[in-house]
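Appendix B, example 12.
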Amino acid sequence: MSTLLIRGGRLWSDGAFLAGDAVLVVDGIVRAIGAGEELAARDDAEGARVVDAAGGLVHPSFADAHVHAAMAGIEALGLDVSGAHGAEACLARVAAYAATHGGPWIVGGGWHMSDYDGGTPTAAALDAVTGDVPAFLVNADHHGAWANSAALRAAGITADTPDPADGRIERDGDGNPTGTLHEGAMALVERHLPPVTEDDARAGLAEAARTLLGFGVTAWQEAIVGEYGGHSDATPAYTALIADGSLAARVSGALWVPRDVTLESVPELVADLARRRDANAAAGLDTSSAKIMVDGVAENRTAAMHEPYLAPGCDCGAPSEHDERGLAYFSTEVLRAVTSALAAEGFALHFHAIGDRAVTEALDAVEAIPERDRNRRRHHIAHVQVVDPVDVPRFAALGVTVNAQALWARNEAQMTELTTPILGERRAAWQYPFGSFLRAGAELAMGSDWPVSTPDPWQAIHTAVTRCEPGSDAPRLNPSEALTLDEALRAYTAGSHELLGLDGSGVLTVGARADLCIASRDPFVGAAEDIASTRTVVTVLGGEVVARG
């Protein structure tokens, strides 16, 4: 019998504090909750391993409802410039890497659009530190990339290269490519990158899992399973780690729905996804969700909007000269056909929708699913950045969960310099309406979208509550949409566990699975501005301590 006794904590679950300061776990299940001395005296507590919570919050573990763990792990093996802020600091980090790197390509990412005019760095700047070695760096949001001249040449990208249907090549006044590739245009270079080895893929995923567990995340959904964005299918890495017992987490994945699906190819696609789902299930990997990316992102004007983006640098409310409304990756007919077919096959739908038109079209697609199929699984829409207020109550009405990446709901450089100016005041006020969703009765889950942003849930929870960056004096972003700490913490625990179908976890109650965390402090004490200082110091999965901070 395996027994664990956690003592000296403040106990919280599902929006409420619990009586007592201790939790007794027997064979991976919460056996009792109460006063430490009383639990320690029980017969079934004899010989228990004791963990002192030292006054910190003891709560159900986090579940990340939208993360790219495999991608994050692999990217960590290459050039990571995410910690460099400012164009000079970024180039210095690239130069240091290039000086010691002997491979045929320089591959990495994490640069910040707000560090460059218009969010578009140039090949010429990258050439200065990489020379003739092809270099390809994905930006922090993974919806654009920076290529040097050698990489553009390797891909054959010239002034005569047309923009792909799902992307855009940044160009100068003469039509020449300048070095920034948006969305589907990245694939023009990505197909030429050196392949990632199976050993590297497994090593990267294992490191990503250790990182997530260290932050108290014991369950997650891999938001894209399949070939995407120059990354190979993560399925072999996941099934290999599951087979050898080294993946200590409760993991599911969403099979990627490619953007080139047509009405005619829907049946073949759904049949292939169902075959892969069943094969993965036999190997211990749940991939009964399907990922549908409806649009791009707002900062590069590829998020699908009902009305045109405003002209950059214009405060007069005028639309951009090309009447740009962003990119919708599927026609209405194809989107509805593929969602209905997937739902009929028993898939849960995991949408990416950033712009207000994308959110509307995702909801319309769910509404068009026959009711007998719509209610078989819990569907969810991730990101939900710009939401027309008329669409807010539709989430609850249709049973669609809001999958929020709360860290983004704040005024930082990318928001104030790139996004808000092209949205305009009215649409900027529609961003990340988490409070409105809850008031309208919607279910709320949370995820990180790592490596786009940090996988530390406490940082996202801080933003959900304060609507600002830690230590920032910037105006709060739409403060009426802030959540309480109870609401935000519940979304990242019970809300995400429920969405991922993890019955028996996500709550701290007798009989529940002992997937728990101990925080460094009690974040309910003190100012909301201190939430970000909270850290996960102990992670418990199935009654076993799997990480200590």
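The chain has three domains: 3-60+509-548, 73-190, 256-499. The two ends are 26 Å apart (CA to CA).
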